[in-house]
Write a structure and sequence with these properties.
Blueprint: E1 7-9, E2 14-18, H1 24-31, E3 36-39, E4 44-48, H2 51-59, H3 64-74, H4 81-93, E5 97-101, E6 107-111, H5 114-120, H6 124-129, E7 130-132, E8 138-140, H7 145-154, E9 159-162, H8 189-199, E10 208-212, H9 219-230, E11 234-238, H10 241-254, E12 262-265, E13 275-279, H11 280-283, H12 298-301, E14 306-310, H13 317-323, E15 330-335, H14 345-352, E16 355-358, H15 361-366, E17 373-380, H16 384-391, H17 395-403, H18 408-418, E18 424-427, H19 431-441, E19 445-446, H20 452-463, E20 469-472, E21 487-490, H21 498-506, E22 518-525, H22 529-537, H23 539-543, E23 548-552, H24 553-556
Helix pairs in contact: 7-14, 8-9, 16-17
């Protein structure tokens, strides 16, 4: 009966799914490839279909018939006409424009419907990038390749790029069968599939795009396997120097590359070698806003056949502009989530490439590739005096007051006592709060001001068990390889950042040697904007199948740990 079907489709292109429906988990997993979760209260989850979600689905092999057949079979009521029309339109726009190699060093832009191209060429921006050939197509200068993609995506047309790639200087990259540490090493099945989807055996249809895997699932390994498949000199962009050096260590540990073949281009060193590692910060450095970026020339200083963008969701806007000029090189983006809080998912799509692979987190958990995690939101009260100050404050001040609620300290200490024998990361947003917590806990603190060498020493002490608790600022959001961390406690966050929540959970996702479960706690001040934003931060993880147990501070402080 239609009344038993799980989905309710609405004319604003949203879908509603009841969490109590017996097929909730199945529906959640089937919506994931082409729809985005936008609201996740307790009983009803709301998804939305967007052009980018459909274009990524198309790049992954889905078509309009499959999506519409699924929606029609699972919708409680008839699918709205505009819902069908928009999905059909977005799928039809995939491949409408196609870029190929032309003659005399130019590229050729073809269009299945020449009338559409003629109309777009009336736009001044398009006219500067493409010259009509009089036969329904247009000639494009290779330097405009990325800019053309940006312009077309602004009009709602994803460009299918078959213009091929610069080969780059050959470089043999072989993966070891046994790591330097003596452990057996081979690609996991999903890593092989991710590389295959990206490389496509060297065909022009492949070679650019994004692989989405949870933290701890081996994104770096996918990057190294892509290097082996492409077989050319490679430039690797990382979020920070710590991540850069972790990449270097992993390359030495798992490939036959020699130390002399790997260069570091950072504030400390300016080495350009067959494999060169740099950071987004160094690339976007300039002395003043009126001056040029000093290090953008790195993109052309090596004969790179592959550029890897680690944590591509962090890619700064200026690097997008540089990327527009290097479209002839293969590009691989690696991330745990394509969510960008600045709304630039379209830039990642058109300048790096479509999503080539995405593994559901819970599926990898079931298969033992990432740790099982228990998530909990601990709601902490606010005392009367602070509540009065909170009520009279402006919005941003309210959030900070709630985030730094002193009552969180007692809850934190109770959680540390509960997990006394475990490796614990405490992650927070505000430096003043971290200083107070450091005094209460007596553990080291790592912030953006901590020198890189000191950070590395503390991370190593944590890995070896000499330090069992680390207090970290936003620098702990990404690129920390701490496989033995099994408890993360978030004391404050960046407003409603879904990306940040996913990254912080990722700090405890590496499988534990004893097979134990990990724990992720988020301390929020109840009945405040801190609690409201926490719900927004949790949305991406809810989409991946994680449920937050709601706990009260009373259940931790004085009464022993227990759920509400």
């Amino acid at each position: 009966m239609a009344e038993d079907r799980p989905l309710i489709l609405q004319g604003d292109l949203t879908l509603i799914l009841e969490t109590a429906h017996p097929r909730f988990v199945e529906m959640r997993d089937r919506l994931l490839p082409f729809a985005e979760l936008v609201k996740s209260p307790e009983h009803l989850h709301t998804y939305r279909v967007t052009p980018i979600s459909i274009w990524n689905a198309a790049a992954a092999g889905l078509d309009s018939k499959e999506v519409l057949a699924f929606l029609e079979s699972e919708s409680r009521y008839p699918v709205p006409d505009n819902f069908k029309a928009e999905i059909l339109t977005w799928f039809q726009r995939c491949g409408l424009f196609r870029l190929e190699k032309g003659t005399e060093g130019r590229l050729y832009l073809g269009c299945r419907e020449p009338k559409v191209l003629r109309e777009l060429l009336h736009d001044e921006g398009m006219a500067e990038l493409a010259e009509p050939d009089g036969a329904g197509g247009a000639w494009v200068d290779p330097s405009h390749r990325g800019l053309l993609k940006e312009r077309l995506i602004a009009f709602g047309f994803p460009l299918e790029d078959h213009a091929g790639y610069r080969k780059g200087t050959p470089l043999e990259v072989k993966l070891r069968e046994t790591t330097l540490s003596g452990d057996p090493f081979q690609l996991r099945p999903y890593q092989q599939e991710a590389v295959g989807n990206f490389h496509m055996e060297g065909r022009v249809e492949g070679g650019s795009g994004v692989v989405v895997l949870p933290c701890g699932a081996g994104k770096t390994v996918v990057g190294m396997a892509a290097m082996a498949a492409v077989g050319t000199q490679t430039l690797i962009l990382t979020p920070n120097t710590v991540a850069l050096r972790q990449w270097r260590q992993e390359l030495l540990e798992r490939t036959w590359l020699e130390d002399s073949q790997i260069g570091e281009y950072s504030g400390h060193s300016k080495e350009i070698r067959p494999v060169t590692l740099t950071t987004y910060q160094i690339l976007t450095y300039r002395r003043s806003t009126s001056e040029d970026f000093l290090h953008f020339g790195l993109f052309d200083q090596g004969d790179w056949g592959l550029i890897i963008y680690d944590e591509v969701h962090l890619l700064p806007a200026p690097v997008f502009r540089a990327t527009a000029g290097i479209q002839a090189r293969r590009r691989l983006g690696l991330t745990a989530t394509l969510v960008r809080e600045d709304g630039k998912e379209e830039d990642v799509f058109c300048l790096i490439g479509p999503k080539r692979y995405d593994a559901p987190w819970k599926d990898l958990e079931r298969r033992g590739y990432i740790a099982a995690v228990d998530c909990a939101e601990v709601r902490v009260p606010m005392d009367e005096e602070l509540r009065l100050e909170y009520l009279g404050a402006k919005a941003r001040r309210k959030f900070r007051l709630a985030s730094e609620n002193p009552a969180k300290v007692a809850c934190l200490l109770a959680l540390l006592e509960k997990h006394a024998d475990e490796r614990i990361l405490i992650i927070g947003q505000y430096l003043d709060q971290l200083k107070i917590l450091q005094e209460a806990v007596g553990c080291p603190v790592i912030t953006g001001r901590t020198p890189t060498s000191e950070r590395e020493e503390l991370y190593q002490a944590f890995r070896e068990g000499r330090e069992k608790i680390l207090l970290v600022s936003k620098v702990g959001n990404f690129a920390i390889d701490l496989p033995d961390a099994n408890v993360a406690i978030q004391v404050s966050g960046t407003f409603g950042s879904r990306q940040e929540e996913a990254q912080r959970l990722g700090r405890v996702l590496r499988p534990k040697s004893d097979g134990s479960r990990a724990a992720f706690y988020s301390l929020v001040t109840e009945a405040t904007s801190d609690q409201d934003y926490a719900e927004k931060r949790q949305r991406f993880l809810t989409e991946q199948g994680y449920a937050y147990q709601i706990m009260t501070s009373g259940s931790l402080v004085g009464e022993g740990v227990g759920a509400e």
